């Protein structure tokens, strides 16, 4: 039998050389993950001693402020730099205009103050959006036709951001997608001497079905019903528009920008990083978490391997960090080698 490998020069390169041994794989590795890359999103609700499971996100809970302190302590131990707070608001407090969002004594400002009192070195991020606070589940104030009004919403969001800054939050993260909100919030922060409050803008936030489990977790799904967020969140078909959104947010004063959701939008993440070179974040959202957990819980995927591979993908795509419900899990895996 004559060989199929006719040419003496075959193969003309051997990329497998570098892959042969662990030492050389480590030596040529281009990207890496560390606990510093993670922001841990958590759900907060009123009460004492509460840790309540979220059915559509196995392994994720809603915490009362006191139990959240234990989570904060774990972030500190594992070196996760930032905790991101999302409120579950009691339905009696929900109104059409979502005014509870701007209550300086509301759940989120109280939780921020408690966290900063116990763990001053842990970064705390708060979401700026009205959907957990509105009786209709939209991120803003609506007219008679249910259309979300831009300017009145920006007013309320700015009051919300100021209440959070007053409570001592480190990063405010507007996730509402109203026009001009970054500039308005930045000016209000500066005017009130909150010159160090960072703004992480949800700049390219798509109208995604991957947010489903989050809406269960904060209890906005039922209020929202069959309505959607297509008049303010971005069309998943669009790519160039994401760059215009990010450009506007940077011009208006964002310190960091975000692309959301994560895994189906890695092309956008790479575009944004290449175009602006800003601190750029990705949000591996609730639906992505639920998919991975469901497959792993069925024994179809190896949870630990998938978690690390999916998070590394964000780094490779240009992300400086990732908001992920796997933050503590991944940090533990990295710590234990
Ligand atoms: C609020 C907000 C949402 C998410 C983060 N902030 C939901 C939405 O826009 O409907 C989604 C996060 C996730 O799915 O994990 N505006």
Automatic annotation (TrEMBL):
Q: Which GO terms describe its biological process?
A: protoporphyrinogen IX biosynthetic process
**Pathway, per UniProt?**
Porphyrin-containing compound metabolism; protoporphyrin-IX biosynthesis; coproporphyrinogen-III from 5-aminolevulinate: step 1/4
Has UniProt tagged this entry with the keyword Ribonucleoprotein? no
Source organism: Paracandidimonas soli
Which residues are Mg(2+)-binding? 245
Cross-referenced NCBIfam families = PRK09283.1 (NF006762)
Q: What is its EC number?
A: 4.2.1.24
Q: Does the keyword Plastid apply?
A: no
- Identify the catalytic residues: 205, 260
Q: What does UniProt give as GO cellular component?
A: cytosol
Assembly notes: Homooctamer.
CDD domains xref list: ALAD_PBGS_aspartate_rich
Please list the GO terms describing molecular function. porphobilinogen synthase activity; zinc ion binding
Q: What is the official name of this protein in its record?
A: Delta-aminolevulinic acid dehydratase
Q: Which UniProt keywords apply?
A: Heme biosynthesis, Lyase, Magnesium, Metal-binding, Porphyrin biosynthesis
Task: Give the reaction(s) catalysed.
Answer: 2 5-aminolevulinate = porphobilinogen + 2 H2O + H(+)
């Amino acid at each position: 039998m004559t060989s199929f490998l006719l040419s003496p020069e075959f193969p003309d390169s051997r990329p497998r050389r570098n892959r042969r041994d662990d030492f050389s794989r480590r030596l040529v590795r281009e990207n890496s993950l560390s606990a510093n890359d993670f922001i841990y999103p958590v759900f907060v609700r009123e009460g004492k001693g509460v840790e309540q499971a979220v059915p559509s996100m196995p392994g994720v809970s809603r915490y009362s402020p006191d139990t959240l302190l234990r989570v904060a302590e774990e972030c500190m131990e594992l070196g996760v730099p930032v905790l991101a707070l999302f409120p579950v608001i009691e339905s009696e407090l929900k109104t059409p205009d979502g005014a509870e969002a701007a209550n300086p004594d509301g759940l989120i400002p109280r939780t921020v103050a408690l966290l900063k009192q116990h763990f001053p070195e842990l970064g705390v991020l708060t979401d700026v959006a009205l959907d957990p606070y509105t009786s209709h589940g939209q991120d803003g104030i609506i007219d008679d036709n249910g259309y979300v009004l831009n300017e009145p919403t920006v007013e309320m969001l700015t009051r919300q951001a100021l209440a959070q800054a007053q409570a001592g939050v480190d990063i405010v993260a507007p996730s509402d997608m109203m026009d001009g909100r970054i500039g308005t919030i930045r000016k209000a922060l500066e005017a009130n001497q909150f010159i160090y409050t960072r703004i992480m803008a949800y700049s390219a936030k798509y109208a995604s079905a991957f947010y489903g489990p989050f809406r269960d977790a904060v209890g906005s799904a039922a209020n929202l019903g069959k309505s959607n967020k297509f008049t303010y969140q971005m069309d998943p078909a669009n790519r160039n528009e994401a760059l215009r959104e990010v450009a506007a947010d940077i011009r208006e004063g964002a310190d960091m920008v975000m692309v959301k959701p994560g895994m189906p939008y890695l092309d956008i993440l790479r575009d944004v990083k290449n175009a602006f070179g800003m601190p750029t974040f990705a949000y591996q959202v609730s639906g992505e978490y639920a998919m991975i957990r469901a497959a792993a819980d069925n024994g179809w995927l190896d949870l630990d391997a998938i978690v690390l591979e999916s998070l590394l993908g964000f780094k490779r795509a240009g992300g400086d960090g990732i908001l992920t419900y796997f933050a503590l899990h991944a940090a533990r895996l990295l710590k234990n080698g």
